[in-house]
Specification:
This protein is an alpha+beta fold. It has a single domain, classed as 2-Layer Sandwich (Heat Shock Protein 90). It contains four helices and five strands. A hairpin with a 2-residue loop joins strand 4 and strand 5. The chain is globular and about 35 Å long. The relative contact order is 0.20. The model has no long low-confidence stretch (mean pLDDT 86).
């Protein structure tokens, strides 16, 4: 696949260890800041990225690294996480937000998906050749 003109792709591998979380988030923030993303967009991406990375670190047994790719243009970014952990059952965790329930009444598991859906413009998950691939798309807007 050929990148669009005006886009840049960055790739980095991080250890699946909680000590890698802050360096990962700092790397993402640096790239988005240099690309001219708004503070609000960066903040939303950081929260969503922290949710993804934390889940991989907690649930990604049998994998030692997280591969992260960021493709950015002035209009949007696509942040992709890849790991070789167990497959994620996205349908089992897909929930609709019930505003009548308090956070204490909601079922444990899957709430991070709701959070990410609120923060980014698109969220997609696939499993390919034994790898989890989760992509977050965020437009550069206020």
């Amino acid at each position: 696949m050929r990148p669009n003109p005006g886009t840049t792709t960055y790739q980095k591998t991080f250890q699946r260890d909680k000590s890698a979380l802050m360096p990962l988030l700092s790397w993402i923030k640096q790239i988005l800041t240099q690309a001219g993303f708004t503070k609000k967009a960066i903040y939303h991406v950081e929260i969503a990225a922290e949710e993804v990375a934390t889940n991989i670190m907690f649930h990604g047994k049998n994998c030692s690294v997280i591969e992260v790719l960021i493709t950015v243009s002035i209009e949007k970014m696509v942040l992709t996480f890849q790991d070789e952990g167990p497959a994620f059952d996205s349908e089992r965790h897909r929930k609709t937000l019930d505003p009548s329930l308090s956070i204490d009444q909601m079922e444990v598991g899957g709430l991070g998906i709701l959070l990410m859906q609120k923060l980014v413009d698109d969220l997609s998950y696939t499993r390919d050749k034994g790898r989890n691939i989760l992509s977050l798309t965020k437009k550069n807007s206020a």
